[in-house]
Design a protein that fits this description.
By secondary structure, the protein is α+β, with helices and mostly antiparallel strands. Helices cover 44% and strands 29% of the residues. It has a single domain, classed as 2-Layer Sandwich (Alpha-Beta Plaits), CATH 3.30.70. The two termini are 26 Å apart.
């Protein structure tokens, strides 16, 4: 499954209800799993972002639906990147050589 890395920042609403954060996270994980995805890493971080999530989803469409729904709740804003393993990147780059 494709891997996605999401950098997350609390919104004003999210920080006002920070005590509910762990429960919201648990609910989001359940939603992702119902959509066929899997959270493989989750970290609270210091600095420009508040959290980092690493997840797998069956497709870009599923990832986008999940992240759009997460954002629609109004507690976090996300910046998400599609991640490639070294093996995946090598296969992609091999295609360049034959083009």
């Amino acid at each position: 499954m494709p891997t996605y890395i999401s950098l997350m920042k609390y919104t004003a609403k999210g920080i006002e209800t920070i005590k509910d954060g762990p429960q919201r996270t648990a609910e989001a994980i359940k939603t992702l799993e119902k959509m066929g995805g899997k959270l493989t890493g989750f970290y609270y971080v210091m600095g420009e972002y508040d959290m980092v999530g690493i997840a797998e989803a069956p497709s870009d469409e599923v990832a986008m639906a999940f992240l759009t729904g997460l954002g629609a709740q109004g507690n976090v804003r996300t910046t998400t990147m599609r991640a490639f393993t070294a093996e995946e990147a090598q296969k992609i780059m091999e295609k360049l050589a034959s083009a």
